[in-house]
Amino acid sequence: MNLDNLTRDLIAIDSVTGNEDEVLKFIENYLRIEGYTHSIKSHNGGLIVGGDTKDSVVALVGHVDTVPKSKYQENLENSKAIYGRGAVDMKSGLSVIIQTLLDFQDHDIVGIFYKGEEGAKEKNGLETLFPEITRKFKISLGIIFEPTDNEVQLGCLGVINAELKLEGIEAHSARPWLGENAIYKTIPLLENLKKLSPESILVDELDYKEVVSVTTIYGGIAKNVIPGEVVCGINYRFAPDKTPKDAVAKITNLLSDYGELTIQDIAESAHPNKRNSTVQNFIKATDAIIQPKQAWTDIARFTNSGIPAVNFGPGSPNLAHKKNEHVITSDINKCYVSIKRFFLEKT
Prior knowledge:
single chain; 347 residues; Alpha-Beta Plaits; six-stranded mixed sheet; 9 helices; 17 strands; elongated
């Protein structure tokens, strides 16, 4: 077993969202060569690895796509760290899933390797895989191998993406007093959002931070025209105590006075289910620190379908998508040892 080399091999395969076929083929071939004997089935959304069984199974879940490489990507690899796009998000986690599938073939485990997590929600591979998985398998626990620093991070934030349109009056830039500059209208909005502190929301004694951010801004049609319209992209991360309807009401109340707010898409939050007995068994077996998941992950699909689930994987989430993305090699092995301990205690 060499999780370090497997992680390096996975990182070496470019699998930016929409270009995942090569890495999926690598995973399938690797499992076969290393002696995996159960079913490996390819679907439009990715791979489902594991025999069809109605027994209670543990689902090991990982997305195979990455965001694009930065042109400033740092590659400072040494014996203690592996650098590269996907090092933490989440090819080191994939290596743990692969090795676990190989080493625990006599256990009821299904591996789910899916496309498109980093892209648009409707192109996420689990959109098509999840109904197939839940039809074939009775899942007792989902382990989502997002980077968590080997902490058990429970639940997740929900996400609203919206656009806020602020309107002015177009005019010639030589006579700006004849118009009303829509860009200047963004100043109070930006100042107020800049001052807006993260809001702590306790759910199951875990502290989730709600935040609202302007992530894009565009407007204007020419260098000599006072802009009559500006559109700000708004990203709102809401805590697991809220339904999507609650979250829409809150962001509407906060921003609608500034302009016309249009909700573009919503991803549900996930309740942490900290007191769930299956979740507690995993926490005890791994002896991991418990934290809230300060992001959205596909744990929401499992939890909101009544399936207990945890986020657990190697690597720091603070390094995801950064130019110096890297994973400490000992963290990969620590993650595998924790997963191994969990399955050994289940027998």
